[in-house]
Design a protein that fits this description.
65% helix; single chain; mainly alpha
């Protein structure tokens, strides 16, 4: 027995693997946050501005990395970058709810990563082991 993996692969994360279970819990929260934004955008017919779009794209990477971590394939995802991503998401959600997707501050101003970082964003969340394998 164990918790079901958040990624939908059908695997069970053993209760003995505390680290993997915490990545799995985090994965559930990330998937939920992304689903909330995508659902809202869809319902309101809103096109995300570049800042929000980047945040969403990065979220997909965070999902991939957390899934690898929950599976035990990735030992040390960049939890600091992930925490920043989560913080940006909370800010963006507050703003979205405040203005109800109407005019307001661009999300690009609320969300930490600079659009110029898009090209290197993929690396931002990566584990040191991945970096070694990549270069
Ligand atoms: Zn999985």
């Amino acid at each position: 027995m164990g918790a079901k993996c958040f990624c939908g692969c059908g695997r069970r994360i053993s209760l003995r693997h505390l680290g993997r279970r915490s990545y799995n819990n985090r994965g559930h929260a990330v998937v939920k946050a992304l689903a909330w934004f995508r659902g809202e955008l869809d319902e309101t017919g809103t096109t995300p501005d570049p800042g929000l779009q980047q945040w969403l794209d990065e979220g997909d990477m965070v999902v991939d990395l957390l899934a690898s971590a929950a599976h035990g394939e990735l030992q040390r995802p960049n939890v600091i970058a992930m925490a920043q991503w989560e913080k940006d998401g909370r800010k963006a959600r507050r703003e979205a709810e405040r203005r109800q997707w109407g005019a307001g501050e661009p999300f690009a101003d609320l969300i930490e990563p600079d659009p110029a970082l898009a090209a290197v964003a993929a690396r931002r969340f990566r584990d040191v082991d991945y970096k070694k394998a990549d270069s």
